[in-house]
Specification:
five-stranded antiparallel beta sheet, Alpha-Beta Plaits, elongated, 2 domains, Beta-Lactamase, alpha+beta, 22% strand
Length: 344
């Protein structure tokens, strides 16, 4: 057309390129705004999780070992506010033995860093910690590292849960599993575990120990005459008498019925026989309600190097029945043991 200047082709191409670049920038900005919105929502979501979770979420700075974030659940578990906890170091919230455990685990985890360990790994530990009032709670901690841009650990991320009740129930179940329900002493199964443990110690270090087995004389007549409830009270009273005479390290168990066994730890035959004699005298001098005086028959033997559990149990059982056959209310010790000449 006359009078209009023709726009150079190169200029049109440049304009088109600029328009495309501007459109690309607008798309990228839109993507960034969407990502920012998503991140904000994600942060809010995880903050809500932290704020309303029954577990306590926290972070500790690696350089100072001080808390840098604590979720509101700290109040429920520890009795303190996040503000009271922030700025404290971990030594203030746990007993020395727990701090020693945590320090050791932290050293182990940092050592793993040099061996190409999974950076996303977690470690679960259960330790005792302090509440605000300095009472003790058992806490399960799930631990991991927070990392910088170079993947170096800069903080510890923890999730803490109060497992005090679970530990209490577990301990109750453990006690029930090893205890005779009537008398409260160890049951036969746990006695065998303790016997094997003591045999191993004796074989390894040459430490002597002895077994005492006793059976209440004429106990069937007690049940027949006074009833089984009275018989149960007699067994409970007899156990109380025996326990007062034993050391904390000695093991007392109900073998079955009215039979009981004792592992006299770090005790030779002579001393174990003296213990059995003393228990017999105390039984004879004790008047049980409704029943009166009772006696028992005792067998005593010392463990011999490397012998089996069956061997030592059979021997002490035979010695106890020998005491019954010889008239009851007596102690019979192992006549074949080298120390028998020293026993009165």
């Amino acid at each position: 057309m006359k009078g209009r200047k023709k726009v150079p082709t190169g200029h049109n191409d440049e304009m088109e390129t600029l328009r495309r670049r501007l459109a690309d920038l607008e798309r990228k900005n839109a993507d960034l705004r969407a990502m920012e919105k998503e991140l904000c929502a994600s942060e809010q979501k995880y903050r809500l999780i932290a704020d309303y979770s029954g577990d306590c979420l926290w972070t500790v700075d690696m350089a100072t070992l001080r808390f840098t974030y604590v979720s509101p659940a700290v109040r429920k578990i520890y009795g303190s506010t996040p503000e009271e906890t922030m700025g404290q170091d971990i030594a203030n919230v746990m007993p020395p033995h727990s701090l020693e455990t945590v320090t050791k685990i932290l050293e182990e985890e940092l050592a793993l860093e040099t061996n190409g360990a999974d950076p996303g790994r977690t470690r679960v530990i259960e330790i005792e910690e302090y509440r605000k009032d300095r009472s003790i709670v058992w806490i399960e901690n799930v631990l991991s590292f927070l990392r910088d841009d170079q993947k170096r650990p800069v903080a510890i991320l923890g999730v803490s849960r109060d497992v005090t009740e679970r530990r209490r129930l577990t301990e109750e179940l453990r006690v029930l599993a090893i205890t005779d329900p009537l008398t409260g002493v160890f049951n036969r199964r746990h006695f065998m575990e303790e016997l094997h443990r003591e045999m191993g110690r004796s074989n390894r270090y040459g430490v002597p120990f002895s077994l005492i087995m006793l059976d209440v004389d004429h106990f069937k007549a007690v049940n027949d005459r006074f009833g089984h409830e009275a018989g149960d009270r007699v067994l409970a009273g007899m156990v109380e008498l025996i326990r007062k005479r034993l050391r904390v390290s000695d093991i007392l168990a109900r073998w079955g019925g009215e039979e009981f066994t004792i592992i006299a730890v770090n005790t030779n035959l002579q001393r174990a026989t003296m213990l059995a004699d003393d228990l017999l005298k105390q039984l004879q001098n004790r008047l049980f309600p409704e029943v009166g005086a009772l006696t028992a028959s005792f067998g005593v033997t010392q463990y011999r190097d490397s012998e089996s559990a069956d061997a030592v149990l059979t021997r002490v059982d035979n010695l106890m029945y020998q005491a019954k056959e010889e008239g009851r209310a007596r102690v019979v010790c192992d006549p074949e043991h080298p120390e028998n000449s020293a026993v009165s």
